[in-house]
User: What shape does this take?
Amino acid sequence: MKYEEWSKISRIASKKSLWILHFCTGCGAIEMPPVMTSRFDMERFGMAPMATPRQADVLLITGYLTVKTLKRVIQVYEQMQDPKYVVAFGSCPINGGMYWDSYNTINQLDKYLPVDLYLAGCMPRPEGIINAMMELMEMIEKGEARGWEKYRKNYEKYKKNQEMAFKFGKVEE
Amino acid sequence: MVNELINVLIIAIYATVAMMIGILFMGIGRKIVARVHNRVGPPIYQGFIDIAKLILKKTNITHGWIYDLALLFSITGIVLTILFLPIGGVKLLSTEGDAFLVLYLLAIPALGFALGAGASGNPNSAIGVMRALVMMLSYELPFVISMVALMIYYDTTSIAEIVASQYGKWAILIPPFAISAAVADMALQGMLMEAPFDIPIAPHEIASGPMAEFGGKHLGSLMIYKAGSIVAYTTLFVDLFLGGGVVMKGGIVADVVNFIVWFILIFLVFTLSLLINTSFPRFRIEQAFKFYWKYEAVLAIIALVWVYWMVIS
Assistant: This one.
């Protein structure tokens, strides 16, 4: 069997069993219980919530990130095993959302961690979350969700941005 | 020489089939739990996908050689246990006195698991391991007393003989063994780490306990161990109290029928354990200990005395 075919099998297996680690910072956490329980039931697509970063495949960042939380998010992300995916949930990790001019929140998560999928909304509805996860599954099957490779390749750049953020707050502007 | 090779082949096939059944049961179990919650639930082959994904992960962080080898230790222990248990009346390695041997073998996988979790150095793992060992100490007392009652009644220490003696009349139909079976079923709940005894791996409390640091291939092996343990423990229960699924004797057709009956019986035992799991919240560790040593052990001793009285009279 050729290596390409083998990695295709791994992609299909990866797609069908996404284990999610919720990094519940902001208000987004409240939208997750309906997605998990009997109304929307994400387990029918093979998704399950996980307790620790070592076991998880998807890092779900639900809401705004302060500089202090960013440190923890990066630690958690680096503990996860490749291949791993990041989903930025809500408008806060995309452009700062309603905290865009706050002194201690970062505006764009993409500067510090490779984000595979954005899920806009304040907050996104459970249907939106399921839809986004289906989108992520398609991306994984096509081999487009390669954030973890990008992080390894451009580690210097990401590290520099992270250090800047820890020292001076945000680096966007 | 040829005979030995055939034996090795049969043993390998049995072990593989048992693991496959265990992985299938994990998927079916998730489906059953989902139906109880009024959800759709994952497909029944979800266990295979999960294990494939974990084995095919690109990075696998290790915490030293004890961490790596402990998993092999657990899987070997559980495979050995399965081979010593008669499956559908077919005995593979089963010999005289294996009821005691199986009791020792049952401790090996749990200890291997504890060793691996201890080597990972996570404080949550340490708490989980401590709880798992206390649980083992708790459920083994009532379980062993129930087994001793069976050994006294059938006057043998071989599980294969206990299975053979139950041909036509299951042990659970004899009044004192109904009590023993109820006790052993609660012990089984602890062995399978299902609620109300899912104390060691409480995900919301201590972040899945011993498994906190496991990821990638290591977590995959751990799931294979879990699958094997489902088959091993339910088979032990079926062998002891439900006649091991033996309904016919002699010939290849009888073997196939016995195998199917065994499969249905372990499935029923597993389903019962899942239904208890979905209906109850979690005990604290001292409550579990008290439950096993105060109530279960006393019930087991009553059954033992009753059996002894039946035997001598």
About this structure: Chain A touches chain B at residues 9-10, 13-14, 16-17, 37-38, 41, 43-46, 50-52, 54-55, 57, 80-83 (CB under 8 Å). Chain A has one domain: 3-168. Chain A is about 45% helix and 15% strand. Strands of chain A lie at 19-23, 48-49, 58-62, 65-66, 85-89, 105-106, 117-119.
